[in-house]
Amino acid sequence: GNSVTQMEGPVTLSEEAFLTINCTYTATGYPSLFWYVQYPGEGLQLLLKATKADDKGSNKGFEATYRKETTSFHLEKGSVQVSDSAVYFCALTLTSGSARQLTFGSGTQLTVLP
Amino acid sequence: DTGVSQNPRHKITKRGQNVTFRCDPISEHNRLYWYRQTLGQGPEFLTYFQNEAQLEKSRLLSDRFSAERPKGSFSTLEIQRTEQGDSAMYLCASSLGQGVNEQYFGPGTRLTVT
Question: For a Cys-Cys bond, which of A6, A42, A91, B61 suits A34, CB 3.0-4.6 Å?
Fold first, then answer.
């Protein structure tokens, strides 16, 4: 089956620190990959996506590169802000099949301290 | 606001009672998904609709759960004879069903069964 494994949290960083959240996946087909973010008290928001190998998704200073050879999609940001404190979810969906439901990792809680 | 909306946002019920949640998707989206999220975990797929047709159900969706999407617009998720294990956040998402099939999530309904 399909699965997503994220690095264990929580992660606590100081403002302006470099962020990496690891994500690896297994998939029965050829997936599209996503990072979603959940701010306190809010719903899941799509942060970025990549649909094929070597694609780089980016948004709000966050980046992730689809690495087929290592089945990874690590999230990075060069300089985090307090406002980036949230839970981050890596997810995949297959590009074939009818439902195309998302399969999520367990999430990584990020806290950025001023 | 043209995003996905869900009602109610919170529901507290006693074990054995029935509850119903509503989801209003983004208007032009023909796909609608229900997920369940428990504390510290990523969302798990429950079921999905293409227009008014319910096309896939997860094994997580026991016989006590039923979902409808009359006329292919809003959807309802009903849980009969609630159990304490049903306590979770119930998320709704919608998508166009084309291309990458990006899913947009509502704020969720938090169910607490006492």
Answer: A91
